[in-house]
């Protein structure tokens, strides 16, 4: 499960839908994997405005990854004058697109429910009493 995906997921339990504590889901006992893919700097530029930057900062600190800047980088900071991707674009690409959770759990900050992650896939199916 790519770290980018975690920026869009909340707890699936109905009572958590209205709670701000249900986002982001917090990784627990996470084993990270790195899968190299080609850099698409245009994608990185276009996804930045859609990210919850504070949630991404929380996620990286909980996983022990390098700290992100306090402010969202400007799109212009991701491409050099020559049209090449800057180091910031490469770093964000590595974090969002190449880094993933191979196994572990995702924990809701509101109810504490844990979603298992196995082989990079999170199980969001809930038992009937929690639906």
Give an overview in words.
The protein has 131 residues and is an alpha+beta fold. The protein has a single domain, classed as N-terminal domain of TfIIb (Single Sheet). It contains 4 helices and 4 strands; from the N terminus they run αβαααβββ. Strand 2 and strand 3 form a beta hairpin. The longest helix is centred in the C-terminal third of the chain and has 12 residues. Its main location: cytoplasm. One of its GO terms (biological process) is tRNA methylation. Belongs to the TRM112 family. It is found in: Cytoplasm; Nucleus.
Following the backbone from N to C, one meets helices and strands in this order, namely HEHHHEEE
- Assigned CATH class: Mainly Beta
Radius of gyration: 16 Å
Proper CATH architecture? Single Sheet
Tell how many strands the DSSP assignment holds.
4
**Global morphology:** elongated
Please report which band the strand proportion falls in: under 5%, 5-15%, 15-25%, 25-35%, 35-45% or over 45%: 15-25%
Distance between the termini: 23 Å
Structurally, the number of domains stands at 1
Q: What is the CATH fold-level name? A: N-terminal domain of TfIIb
Averaged pLDDT, please? 92
Q: Give me the side-by-side strand order of the main sheet.
A: 1-2-3-4
Number of alpha- plus pi-helical segments: 4
Question: What fraction, in percent, of the residue positions are helical?
Answer: 25-40%
- Low-confidence segments: none
- Largest pleated sheet: 4 strands, antiparallel
């Amino acid at each position: 499960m790519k770290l980018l995906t975690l920026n869009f997921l909340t707890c699936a339990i109905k009572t958590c839908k209205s709670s701000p504590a249900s986002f982001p889901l917090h990784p627990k006992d996470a084993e990270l994997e790195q899968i190299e893919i080609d850099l698409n700097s245009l994608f990185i530029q276009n996804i930045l405005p859609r990210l919850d930057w504070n949630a991404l900062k929380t996620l990286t600190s909980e996983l022990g990854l390098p700290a992100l800047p306090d402010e969202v980088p400007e799109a212009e900071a991701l491409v050099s004058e020559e049209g090449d991707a800057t180091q910031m674009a490469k770093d964000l690409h590595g974090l969002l697109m190449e880094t993933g959770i191979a196994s572990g759990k995702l924990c809701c900050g509101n109810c504490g429910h844990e979603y298992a992650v196995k082989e990079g896939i999170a199980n969001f199916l809930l038992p009937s009493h929690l639906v």
